[in-house]
Amino acid sequence: MTDAYDLTPTLDQADAYFATRPRSDAWRDATELEKTRALAYAALVLDACFEFSDAARYESGEWRPRIVAAVCEQALWILTRKDGGAERLASLGVTSASVAGISATFDRREASALVCDAARRMIGRLGRFVPLDEGGGEITSTPLAL
After folding, report:
1. DSSP secondary structure letter of residue 52
2. What pTM, to 2 d.p., does this model score?
């Protein structure tokens, strides 16, 4: 793993990326604090999900533009995603829960991805997606099959 803070683009880098990206209103409308948090969380998630190759950085140690763009895309996705409790439980494979006589059922088709498709594709061969091996689970970027 890399240092997730090292992977986090600056606000200037992210603003420059979104200045040319269509449909990035959620980024422009976010506060500086929301942007900073989204970038930090995006970097943390991508750092946890990928092993980056040496080619992901220039010799100077600077991340390649595709990696910066991937973190930015993940941050935008975080800002626009509606992450309800049911989606989170469904993404973990929970199909029903019951507490004190109250029960709920979750449709696994509603499970949301942990890594957005745009980020995963931008990283491409510059990183290898690593399944989570602790606890028998796996991080996945596609909804769970029924």
Report:
1. E
2. 0.72
